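[job 4417] fold queue: 2 targets
>>> target A
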Amino acid sequence: MKLHAEVFFTKIENSEVIYFRDHLDLSYKSKDPDLYVIKVVENYAYKLKAEPGDLIIHSTSWRCDSVNLIVLTYIVYSDYLDFSTKKAKKIKVKDLRITTSEDVNKPKPIEISELHIVSHGLRHVSYLVKNDPLFKKRLKAGTIGAFKEIDAVLAGKITS
């Protein structure tokens, strides 16, 4: 089975989430995936003009993307990321959405889009920021208000 990691680099600015995604193939790696992800994050932090101490790095989820592929998802948040050299995407904070399953016997939603993944990851970060001063202190004062807008639901809900 193949193992991949996706890393979403994110920041909130002017009521929008700005982000880009990197992808790692870890199928033939033999160490903890966190070690490889941290290396990539540190490299990007330098390129994106952020200090490692300004970053929130969090493993948010995993999913089976196909019969033969497991994807680990990491979110990296920093108010100091400079996306001017990257093709970043934007989502309005008010448009963040989680995905849901329509079948209580099948917890995995039928469709999981990039919007859903970013939304889910930011809800994790929101929870950490609200409940742990170590995470909160890595944010600029103005960003704390933006995180108050993000629903702290940590995973997709199952509807009946």
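>>> target B
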Amino acid sequence: MIMKTEEIEKATIQRSSLALLFKGCIASNQLSQIKTNVPGFWLVNFDTIQNSGTHWVVIVVLLSKQLNYFDAACLHPPYSIAEWLQRNNVTRKLKKAITKKTNKTCGEWCLLFVLYRFRFPDVTFEGIIQILLTRLSNFSDTSALFKREFSM
């Protein structure tokens, strides 16, 4: 089952290194809340605020002001997200999926990406993906790695 906003907030708060960088969980029609001049990250749901939520992606603003967009399933984003990414010149995103499109662990994937993105700030986007996949190879699945990293 897809992570709920409350579960994402709890996991983030438990990781003190991420707590100050976490700016919130927002819906696809709330992208105007993202401040691209402030380092941090937002988990964005494909659904609008009026719906319950179907798929999480993450937008990361690094200290260098570089923007990263991460979607482990590489789904075609809703228009509001695609337009925001284009308007903000976001090019740091996956080229191919690293999980199945039907996978319900998108929130876990996003938080793991964020954890490694800020743990290794000088590593390239592609390098972070390799770190994530290498770490994952030592666990039975994404949830097991997530539980280890977030002590849940």
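[job 4417] complete. Note on B: The chain has a mean pLDDT of 91.
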